[in-house]
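Lab notebook, bench 4. Still working through the backlog of constructs that have no structural model yet. Next entry is a single chain of 233 residues. Request: give me the structure tokens for it.
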Amino acid sequence: MLELSGVTLAYGPVLAVRDATICVNQGEIVTLIGANGAGKTTILRAISRLISPKSGAITFEGRDLAGLTPDKVLRLGLAHCPEGRQVLARQSVRDNLELGAYIRSDKAGVQADLEKVYGLFPRLKERAGQLAGTLSGGEQQMLAIGRAMMCRPKLLLLDEPSLGLAPIIVQEIFQIIADLNSEGVTILLVEQNANLAMKTAHRAYVLEAGVIVAEGDAKELAGDERVKKAYLG
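Model written out:
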């Protein structure tokens, strides 16, 4: 479904990612793990066309994403749930969710998907009229995922969904990620909690200083002594 071939990414003269080759097959959860600054978020930003590669190619369902704007990538079915959640604090929960469907004109379908999101996240339904900025961190993460789901993505990019959350909420968020995948959503997951990411994902890539140093079946990689020592504690 998604393929990065020899992708190099830079911020000015500083190389952030070097010669990365990654693939995500339909129906998978694939995780990118690595230390802070390894280039994980930069890769997601390149996929969603927030930045352009210095070299290499990114294709989604066989289509080269070069030259596309972020909204056109979204229309292809590729949604990005960013690090830090980035909800609109002064807008209601419902407004934030409806914003996620801004590319759609099928009002009945949007309403049906809104109810589906409320089914996934009952707390959002309870707080539909509440300002998003007054939600807890966990509720804001649920809102960010729900907002991304409102565009009916084929592939969901999730950036640090557990960041700053209590362990019990993290478990709830990851159960929802697994549930979304079981319903047919393909997921590319960036996550600091490497243990949980590896338990949830089908395959994994390990990044060190912008270079992919290991890849493979997530459970097999979780048993690799070098990966365990460096990332899994």
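Notes after review: The domain at 2-86+153-232 is CATH 3.40.50.300 (Rossmann fold). The chain has a mean pLDDT of 92. Flag for follow-up if needed.
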